[in-house]
Amino acid sequence: MIVGVPREVKADEYRVSLTPNGAEELSRAGHRVLVQTHAGDGSGISDEQYAAAGAEIVPATADVWGRANLIIKVKEPLPDEWPLMRPGQTLFTYFHFAADEKLTRAVMASGVTAVAYETIRDAKGGLPLLTPMSEVAGRMSIQEGAKFLERPFEGRGILLAGVPGVAPATVVVLGGGVVGANAARVAAGLGANVFLLDVNLDRLRYLDDVMPRNVTTLFSNRHNLLEVLPWADLVIGAVLIPGAKAPHLVRREDLKRMPPRAVVIDVAIDQGGCFETSRPTTHAKPTYMVDDIVHYCVTNMPGAVGRTSTYALTNATFPFALQLANKGADRAAHDNLGLAAGVSVRAGKVTNAAVAETFGYPL
Ligand code: NAD
Fold first, then answer.
1. What domains sit in the chain, N to C, each tagged with a CATH number?
2. Could you report the predicted ipTM of this complex, rounded to two decimals?
3. Which residues line ligand 1 (CB under 6 A)?
4. Which among 112, 29, 50, 19 has a CA at the least distance from the CA of 326?
5. How many whole angstroms from 104 Cα to the centroid of ligand 1?
6. pLDDT tens, 192-228?
7. If you ran DSSP here, which 8-state letter would residue 219 be given?
């Protein structure tokens, strides 16, 4: 199989879909790996490192797409890339089809087999190629929160850890899933007082068991939320209701209860956000103020820590990439039901039930 790794073209995207170690393993398995020149720059991986791992460095995007049977990417193909997709080719990347009908139609028309990272399942029914990015965003949310609490960044000038004789900050985390648990752990590690809210009692029992003593679990309801907001220097939005928009747990009028210049980091912004006042922002201008509260709502947080994210993502994607290269998409999907759940478009038709339902296409 010829495996192609194009350079990502989306703004602020610093990840790459394959590491030199992955290139080496694919080459060892008898595949030819084409890496577009500078594809790894954003993650601090040079062309020389890929070449030393057995990859061929290819200057032109069109060449990578034109020669490879299996293309591995990070982000969905953008309109400039649509004409490069070819019938019979397999494209393995994040697509998020349900959010973009034009993309879905372009992929259907191209004849590629689209294997979407976001719908691949593990044996427990989890989404193993989403988890690493939630881990990154959860941990990063505290790092960003700490930064924007600094006064030069418009925050209230609070050090999360406090110092001897001065109390640490209070961090409220809404949602105790992958993002929330990772955020709570990092905040607690820095010494903050953490309140972690969720509606799932089993999950709260588990979190209560494994979290450090400075994390207090709370059942998520309006009463408890309003009780903790006046103490909150930093609030992390990490709620997910699968297949639905995030609920606006914090209303505009609630912001008045928070200390002035407190910070909210709404990680759930990609599903609409948990704050009524959230709207998507970018790494170029990550924050804005509403009613004296700093809002950070970057939709692709992991992009900023490209190197960590590349390694975290490829740890999870590579085993599937190798199966696709070794067996081709059809046989790989036949042999692995989890991988089959990722096949979203094949032979011009949508094969993922949720995407088909979204656009009213027949399955
Ligand atoms: P998850 O499914 O692991 O966790 C969501 C948690 O929310 C669950 O534990 C659930 O019980 C809880 N929840 C549901 N309703 C609630 C409520 N009313 N109050 C409190 N908790 C409630 O999901 P995750 O992987 O942690 O992802 C969280 C969000 O972060 C998702 O929207 C995801 O897309 C997003 N995300 C964003 C970025 C980014 O760059 N902005 C990166 C990664 C993930």
1. 2-120+306-359 (3.40.50.720), 131-299 (3.40.50.720)
2. 0.99
3. 133-134, 137, 174-180, 197-200, 203, 220, 238-241, 246-247, 249, 267-271, 299-302
4. 29
5. 25
6. 999 999 999 999 999 999 999 999 999 999 999 999 9
7. E
